[in-house]
Specification:
alpha+beta, two-stranded antiparallel ribbon, globular
């Protein structure tokens, strides 16, 4: 029971924060917003969507948008790990028992991995063609290995469902530009001043 409480509790704030970053990106890039909206309406055309796991799997572009936003704005930007055995890293021997700070925010913006425009929003990075051959730990938003996030599937399902209802009912607008964003690196990634988004009801 305590584990379930942890997953649901931790998943609520983290997923909400991820959706806030996603809405901000869609507000800044109306073309991507329109493409996501068209996909949602194609799969869920009815006013009250009938959501199934099979239907959620069809939201391929929506998932690409979510992944790209998580890449640029990892909800947990830094994690700490302890090595349980002696290791050699970049020629340096490190005895077991040392703590490592893994800066996920920086890893997911490395130009040698993600290309010269690594700081820009491009959901197509997560297309099957462009993802082929990419190192499995280049995308660490849910951490990796044996200590990865228990709620990966729960988070993606809940975020897709939120995006279905938000995209069907609202347009997102903002005056914020990428160069205006200033971060607060806390236990979760925050924006100074908050996500200034306007919602416009779709008719």
């Amino acid at each position: 029971i305590q584990n379930i409480f942890t997953i649901v509790g931790a998943g609520t704030d983290t997923s909400a924060t991820a959706i806030s970053f996603t809405l901000l990106q869609l507000a800044m890039y109306p073309d991507h917003q329109q493409k996501l909206y068209e996909e949602v309406m194609k799969i869920f055309p009815e006013p009250e969507p009938h959501i199934t796991m099979e239907a959620l799997k069809q939201l391929q572009y929506t998932e690409m948008v979510l992944n790209e936003c998580l890449r640029l704005y990892p909800v947990v930007p830094i994690v700490v790990r302890e090595n349980t055995a002696d290791i050699t890293l970049c020629g340096l021997r490190i005895p077991k028992g040392n703590n490592f700070t893994v800066h996920i925010y920086n890893i997911q913006r490395r130009k040698d991995i993600w290309g010269p425009n690594a700081d820009s929003f491009d959901p197509e990075r997560f297309s099957p063609e462009r993802s082929a051959g990419r190192h499995p730990f280049a995308f660490l938003v849910f951490s990796g290995g044996s200590r990865n996030c228990l709620g990966i599937r729960y988070a993606m399902i809940s975020m897709k469902i939120m995006m279905i209802y938000l995209a069907k009912n609202f347009r997102f607008k903002t005056n914020i530009r990428e160069e205006d964003i200033r971060f607060r690196f806390e236990s979760m990634l925050r924006i100074k001043g908050g996500h200034m988004i306007q919602l416009e009801k779709r008719l």
